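Make up an example, fold above all:
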Amino acid sequence: MTGAQIVAYVLAIVAVAEAVALAVLWIRYTRQREERDEIRRRLDTRNMLFSGGREAVKQVWQTANILLFLGPRLGLAPRDASGKLWVHQLQLTLADFIVEIHDTHHPLGGGLYYEEQKPESKRRSKEFLANRLPKYIDYFERGIVRNPDGKRWLSGSALT
């Protein structure tokens, strides 16, 4: 074999290796693009909405909606419309309550450290304890008292 033949042979091997490498990169790129498109499809809000029957629900996000969806199906919430709305309202009120509790530590904004807003936090906490906390407690206590299934739970006759 001559020197020119060896060089041609090596160049052919290099060309094949480059072609294989490009093919592998193209396959990886295509898979990543498909995975990215799949993630985008899954995150598309149109796929997260209730759209009719039970089977039409593809994804449910946010605690309130997850509970609204699963509660009746698992026997943990009423199945009738007014009962579902009542339990959903309780959950949303609880979420508001948690936000207000959080705001006692970050009254000026979540982007600031607690130490940067400590005086405002003390003032907000005092106002929360004096005014807002009693309103939430009263709201939930009234719900327990008005429960037609008993005076022990906010909804139904058993802990869920």
